[in-house]
Amino acid sequence: MIFQAVKTSVLKFIKDEDGLTIVEYAVAGGLITVAVVVAFTSLGGAVNTRITALCNAVVAGACP
Known about the structure:
The protein has helices spanning 2-15, 18-58. The protein is mainly α. The chain has one domain. 86% of the residues lie in helices and 0% in strands. The mean pLDDT is 84. The radius of gyration is 27 Å and the shape is rod-shaped. It contains 2 helices and no strands.
């Protein structure tokens, strides 16, 4: 009797897909985070150069 209840619970757990949604969102969030970090890392130097050029155009030589 107990074995049948355990077997039923295990089979129900295996067929349950609610946990998969959470895992899928976690994986998607991780991929988005990696993409944002790569984008900011790649564009960081170019953005810094542009901001420094703008600052120097406004206040000659006063930019760090």
